């Protein structure tokens, strides 16, 4: 049900078919930029608790990718002039702050297996959704090569990213094999909560939830 609800989000449908308003897309990119900073910290904590050098190297490398390469792509898009200008300093949405706070807390306090399960949805769901979005975006580009964000969406289908997703899934599966029954139950719970945050993160880019007035 949760996975189906993600696929049915209006935000994702309109992102793929090119009809998402540009101001909404800018909001999404701003929030994703803020998210990547927190996600990189969570991945670094997972790496610090990893059981071996191979696992530590993968999670640390993923943290570096999120903090530098991906974040730079987002920042370049925000300053490219292709999206509506904004002078306001981006502030974490409720979903964004809740998501990265949850991941950081789990990565800092829970066993490696549980923290690895918590960070997996951002890899796995993003890749699965991204493949379909990229296919739709290619149709948009064929009709309008200058579309302001369809080219960015097609990067969701990059082979290097999907290879990283496959490695992340393998590492989490291996962690589950070595975990206790109680830890495996905690892994399922962490994965489920993070998946809920994935849905909320995308949805609130289009359907904003305002913070209470200060």
From TrEMBL:
Q: Which SUPFAM superfamilies match?
A: Heme oxygenase-like (SSF48613)
Identify the InterPro entries for this entry: Haem_Oase-like_multi-hlx, Thiaminase-2/PQQC, Thiamine_Salvage_TenA
Its domain of life reads Bacteria
> By its UniProt entry, which Gene3D superfamilies does this protein fall under?
Heme oxygenase-like (1.20.910.10)
Cite the annotated pathway.
Cofactor biosynthesis; thiamine diphosphate biosynthesis
One GO cellular component assignment for this chain's record is: cytosol
Which Pfam family, an example, fits this chain? TENA_THI-4
Annotated ranges, domain Thiaminase-2/PQQC: 10-207
Q: Give the protein name, as stated in the record.
A: Thiaminase II involved in salvage of thiamin pyrimidine moiety
- What is the originating organism of this protein? Rhodococcus wratislaviensis (Tsukamurella wratislaviensis)
């Amino acid at each position: 049900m949760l996975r189906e609800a993600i696929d049915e989000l209006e935000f994702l449908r309109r992102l793929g078919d090119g009809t998402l308003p540009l101001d909404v897309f800018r909001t999404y990119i701003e929030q994703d930029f803020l998210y990547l900073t927190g996600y990189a910290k969570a991945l670094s904590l997972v790496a610090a608790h990893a059981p071996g050098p191979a696992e530590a190297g993968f999670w640390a490398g993923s943290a570096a990718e999120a903090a530098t390469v991906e974040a730079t792509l987002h920042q370049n898009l925000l300053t490219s002039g292709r999206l509506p200008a904004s002078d306001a300093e981006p502030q974490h949405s409720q979903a964004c702050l809740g998501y990265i706070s949850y991941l950081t807390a789990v990565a800092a306090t829970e066993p490696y297996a549980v923290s690895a399960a918590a960070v997996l949805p951002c890899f796995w769901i993003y890749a699965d959704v991204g493949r379909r979005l990229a296919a739709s975006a290619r149709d948009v580009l064929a009709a309008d090569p200058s579309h302001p964000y369809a080219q960015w969406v097609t990067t969701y289908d990059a082979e290097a990213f999907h290879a990283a997703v496959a490695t992340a899934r393998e590492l989490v599966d291996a962690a589950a094999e070595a975990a206790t029954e109680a830890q495996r139950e905690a892994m399922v719970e962490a994965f489920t909560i993070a998946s809920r945050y994935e849905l909320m993160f995308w949805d609130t880019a289009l359907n904003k939830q305002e913070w209470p007035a200060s």
